[in-house]
Write a structure and sequence with these properties.
This protein is of the alpha+beta class. It folds into four domains: 241 residues, Galactose-binding lectin (Jelly Rolls); 156 residues, Galactose-binding lectin (Jelly Rolls), CATH 2.60.120; 129 residues, Phosphorylase Kinase, domain 1; 228 residues, Transferase(Phosphotransferase), domain 1 (Orthogonal Bundle). 24% of the residues lie in helices and 26% in strands. The strands form eleven sheets. Strands 1, 2, 3, 8, 13, 16, 17, 18, 19, 20, 24, 27 and 30 form a 13-stranded mixed sheet that branches. A seven-stranded mixed sheet has the order 33-34-38-39-37-36-35. Strands 4-7-14-11-12 form a five-stranded antiparallel sheet, with no helix packed on it. Strand 33 and strand 34 form a beta hairpin.
Length: 842
Amino acid sequence: MVTEMAIHKLQLAFFTVYTIFSLYYTCNAQYNPPDNYLIDCGSRTNTTIGQRTFLSDTSLSTSLTTPQDILASTSSNSIPSTVNAPLLSTARIFTGPSSYTFQVQKQGRHFIRLHFFPFSYQNYDLATAEFTVSTQDVVLLTDFTPNGKSTTLFKEYSLNLTSDTLVLSFKPSQNLAFVNAIEVTSVPDNLISDTAQIVNPFSQYTGMSKQTLETMYRVNMGGPLVTPDNDTLWRTWVIDQNYLNNSKLAKDVVYSGKINYMSGGATQETAPDSVYNTAAELVVSNTTTAAVFNMSWQFKVNGGSSYLIRLHFCDIISTSLNLLYFNVYIDGWWVVHDMDLSTLTQNSLATAYYTDFVLNSSDSTDTIQVSIGPSTLENVLPNGILNGLEIMQIVNGSGSAFMVQSSGGKANLGVILGSVIGSVAILIFLLIVALMCMKKKKKMERQSSKTWMPFSINGFTSLSTGSRTSNGTTLTLGPNGSYGYRFAFSLLQESTNNFDENWVIGVGGFGKVYKGVLRDETKVAVKRGNPKSQQGLNEFRTEIELLSRLRHRHLVSLIGYCDERNEMILVYEYMEKGTLKSHLYGTEIPAPSWKQRLDICIGAARGLHYLHTGSAKAIIHRDVKSANILLDENLLAKVSDFGLSKTGPELDQTHVSTAVKGSFGYLDPEYFRRQQLTEKSDVYSFGVVLLEVLCARPVIDPTLPREMVNLAEWGMKWQKRGELQQIVDQRIAGTIKPESLKKFGITVEKCLADYGVERPSMGDVLWNLEYVQQLQETDSGANSEVNSINRIVELSSHVHDVGSQESVDLGEAGTSYAHNEPDLSDVSMSRVFSQLIKAEGR
């Protein structure tokens, strides 16, 4: 421990010396702005701070218009010790509408920075000031008032100026207005890209380059304070320690090498080297166990506003390419999954990269949280970094958002790189290097494409020959001697109208799901894998291996698959009524009754119980949620989507150690904390589904008040108070018998226990739900203590008989499938196998 601390201190010391040594170079290489007005307001002399000189505004008589010429000052002893302290001892006081006029040498994006420090001067108390600041195009501050005496305030705005003059106006709302210093400085137009990704719903935002932005936070993760003299655009980057939720989950990293900047990407104006050569790195207990928590930063903001969030990355920790993968979350939404900086920076390390997001915060939310978490990819070490962060409020609204094709991060050619490349010899050299990189990348792609080759299942290759059926499919031998259909790709093209986009009924992490009709009029759901999906092979294998050996009335049946032409396609039985989720909320589908809801829950419980007990080793679903419970034309429930499923522990083990996967809101907290998976993780998720069925609301709803956002937490508060009836879906509230609701609530509470050992098995959950249904169907007058006990005994026997009968019947059923699904024209079919992923999803 002592050695690590000593090394870390030496790194920081080296970095400090390195920064000082490179200061001269940085300052001489920085951007030269066409407009650079630095005004020390109220001062009679010029003021020099670092390498910048602020001019007295008394020399700007032609550009300042004010009814009274009031120059205020205070003693330096009353001013807080800050970098800009020399600017704060004087101020210009306005008793009526006043303005500064600046001649704009070059139109485009500019910084406007305002410095405020309220103090008392003669009869003027600047702490009581209230005023509005605006340009001729936009209002920057409305009825602004200082927080109190001896408090420094700094406001920075980024505007796109479109005229040859800038008029900066101050209008007192009451008695006076004031300002201590003003900066109006040109910045490169490409500093703000035109596009960004909207966080929720995830889509493209265009027109950002025309927006006015107010800087809320500019943070250097893992590094020291960066002052204006160390930044090419004279910005200040604060340290991140005050915003970290848990400092034990992040460690500072310092890099002493050269930072690279790729053409068309980040430049030294995007952020300085002193941001990119430090980072916060995710702390992991060891190299074989995945990190349990994300490292997160939280920032106070104004609710009901829109924000541009810029994240800065530079892989300064990897020793070779394609080692670092991690996930990025904003306010709980999964915005980047399995980020690979090597690929994003054209197969290079220590290369600056940034990405922009737009978040529309709700009125009830006054914070923004940014998190870095481990990747969910198999065989990838858990890690993650963040080098810098900027949060900017969009001053004049959220702007225009459009769903367009992503064009990537477009930026003009790097200023520095463009100025260096000046000879034909260097261009030829770079061309040779680029060709070598392309050759290497193609080689890697060819290697990675092997994961999309046909594979063998339990010793039987999927390309083995077999008899051709009239449907155009090939019968191939599957596990346990049963037969599985291998469909010809041409047949699936035909059945889906050549994968017509109008026939898409769902989109998930694996790929799109299409409606289809086979030649014998069998209705099917065709899930076509996306080759870019890094988890495609795993899900493809898991679905086939599981579903080809499992048959149950309450599990969605796999009809077949196709692996021709490097395709991965799965074909399922078609479920007429779509997802359980679509019947509860978010659509115009009539709400199911309490009895129907209980039937659905019982059916799903039977399917999960079979998964846990129907084979030698339990199968854990890992993604139980209402969107993965499908309904046929009779509202019979079937569990679907087994791409994340995992075989349970061996007989001498209590759990399976594995990376956390699932859906936020349904995820077992114990599994999340310890990464130890058991069947009880499914029980927890199913408990959330039960609450969802009862309340008919999303499991995570950020638009609600804080205490209501998480359904499981909110529902358990009401249950433990004995007032669960207060949150029942109003459409069925009057139809539930108290005894039935009470037993249902107890069942949910047991499922949502903090520790898995305290939760019931799925068999017990099934038994309790059957009892809930019995209580609902029995007259209340007959519910005596003795009769209840008798019904429990009878019900226990009944459940046992039903379970065993299902196993026998389904075993005899073999590979028979339902061929009598209703017509595909039903409007609800658009929701079948709907697997749209939110950012907080898998």
